[in-house]
Write a structure and sequence with these properties.
The protein folds into three domains: 215 residues, Growth Hormone, Chain: A (Up-down Bundle), CATH 1.20.1250.20; 37 residues, no CATH class; 213 residues, MFS general substrate transporter like domains (Growth Hormone, Chain: A), CATH 1.20.1250. It is 79% helix and 0% strand. It contains 24 helices and no strands. Helix 19 packs parallel to helix 22. The longest helix is centred in the C-terminal third of the chain and has 36 residues. The chain is globular. The relative contact order is 0.12.
């Protein structure tokens, strides 16, 4: 018994040391490297795939279908609970990075051959599933390894590192691939992923107690019920190929939807809206689901069991509604009405704007970590949404504004967006139960896209009907419901526990 007690104290002290190490100076490095590693494969998959397919001579229809590679990010909430139940987020993170590195090498072997488009598409989809899982592991690890103050303080590092990865892929690495060929270019990208993997193996603190072994997950997936589901799906596919019933129904549905604004909703948008509706249904059935023995179901039940969860759902969906409407029509307005060139817009929006956004996110995260979310949420949210009125002012002018004025407006707008990002990221982390951090983060990040879906459907119709000046005023009004919810949402002073 004494030996056991001593060992227990040693393990406990080791875990405390790891927690102190994770909250010390080291996060400046590992937060940056992990979120670089999150943005890196995402950008390769969602920005380079369409360029590679076009270069290999794929049809426009096939190039358009590369947008389906984004689906795993819309669906990641489905397997997010698994990362909370098995192993640790650190092991998931490193294990997936091994597979991503191997996957990029395999992709490079096919990348120069037109006849291998099918294999290339399969590689990209598998990489997308791995990268979405990687995102879940990184977000979960961030929540495990840092306390609330640390989570707020390093929000800016997250944003900077993610953006740096995106700029690296879309700039220097794309130029490199064009110069030396896609095979060597992708091998270089795989080498960078391998370097990041090596850094994480030696650098990441062990901040969690291991859960069930991964072998238990493998055995569960190979159980009879999953085999039965697989056989059933196979039968459905075979019947459909023979009879074509579902194809006929889908053709009719597409012909009806195509003449409505619903045709503008992407597949990912439908998934985001479907998740929101499903959570509302589960909220109604919460009492029944609470008696379920499934750990998987408990991840969703516990999310819905937090205090004032209806207000949480509404706030997550509505927080960026005004910003979403603004972003959808900003470029058409600046180009068509303000006569801003593509080059000027690219420099101001993609360079100065990005820098302003990063500075604001850094500053916002630091201030929240020092003085709390409640102290700064109102100033930052007002800054994010009030700056929409600058576009109302621009649209009311009788002549196009100068490039200097447009530069100032766009830079200020990005600065306000960065402050809003700091607030929103901290709040989303507060919505995650410590027992289901990865699953809950996957849920709330999927819900974030609902407002972008709504804006994507309605923006063009509204702008055409009421004009740009009234439209930008509408974008500010669309932000007011989310701002009003600040009076009643929970978690502003820290994570609140559900009542017993």
């Amino acid at each position: 018994m004494e030996v056991g007690a001593i060992l227990g104290r040693v393990v406990s002290q080791s875990q405390q040391d790891e927690a102190q190490r994770a909250n010390g100076k080291l996060p400046h490095v590992w937060v940056s490297t992990t979120y670089f590693a999150e943005g890196y494969p995402y950008t390769i998959i969602n920005n380079l795939a369409e360029i590679l397919f076009q270069q290999l001579g794929a049809s426009l229809r096939v190039v358009g279908l590369t947008s389906l590679f984004h689906l795993p990010w819309n669906l990641k909430f489905l397997w997010g609970p698994l990362l909370d139940r098995y192993e640790t987020k650190r092991r998931w993170l490193i294990g997936v990075e091994v597979l991503l590195t191997i996957g990029l090498v395999v992709l490079a072997m096919f990348a120069s051959q037109t006849q291998w488009l099918g294999a290339i598409g399969t590689c990209f989809m598998l990489l997308a599933v791995l990268a979405a899982t990687h995102d879940i592991a990184i977000d979960g690890y961030y929540l495990e390894a840092l306390d609330e103050e640390g989570q707020s303080r390093f929000v800016g590092y997250r944003a900077m590192a993610y953006k740096a990865a995106s700029l690296l892929v879309r700039g220097p690495l794309l130029i490199l691939a064009g110069a030396i060929g896609w095979t060597l270019g992708l091998l270089a990208m795989a080498a960078i992923m391998g370097i990041v993997l090596a850094v994480h193996i030696f650098l990441l603190p062990r901040a969690e107690t291991p859960k069930k072994a991964i072998g238990a997950l493998a055995r569960g997936l190979l159980s009879l019920r999953w085999i039965f589901v697989g056989v059933a799906l196979g039968v459905v596919v075979l019947v459909e190929r023979k009879l074509g019933v579902l194809s006929g129904v889908m053709t009719q549905l597409r012909s009806v939807v195509a003449v409505t604004p619903l045709a503008k909703i992407s597949v990912g948008g439908w998934i985001a809206v479907g998740l929101f509706v499903a959570l509302l249904v589960l909220l109604v059935l919460k009492r029944r689901l609470m008696h379920s023995k499934s750990d998987y179901a408990h991840a969703f039940v516990d999310f819905l069991g937090q205090p004032k969860v209806g207000r949480v759902l509404a706030f997550v969906v509505l927080f960026r509604c005004g910003e979403s409407f603004l972003q959808k029509m900003k470029w058409p307005f600046l180009n068509d009405v303000m006569k801003m060139s593509v080059g000027d817009y690219g420099f101001v929006n993609g360079t100065l704007g990005v820098v302003a956004s990063l500075i604001a996110t850094f500053a916002g995260g630091w201030l929240i970590s020092k003085q709390g979310l409640r102290r700064w949420i109102w100033p930052f949210v007002i800054a994010q949404n009030l700056l929409n009125l600058l576009y109302v002012w621009l649209a009311s002018q009788s002549t196009p504004a100068s490039v200097g004025v447009l530069t100032t407006v766009i830079t200020l707008e990005h600065f306000g967006e960065g402050l809003g990002t700091a607030v929103f990221m901290v709040y989303l982390m507060r919505c995650c139960d410590p027992r289901h951090k990865a699953a809950h983060m996957a849920i709330v990040t999927a819900l974030m896209s609902v407002s972008f879906t709504i804006a994507g459907v309605a923006s063009g119709f509204i702008a055409e009907r009421i004009g740009f000046s009234s439209y930008f005023m509408f974008s500010f009004i669309a932000a007011l419901p989310g701002m009003a919810l600040l009076f009643v949402v929970p978690h502003l002073d820290g994570r609140e526990s559900a009542p017993a």
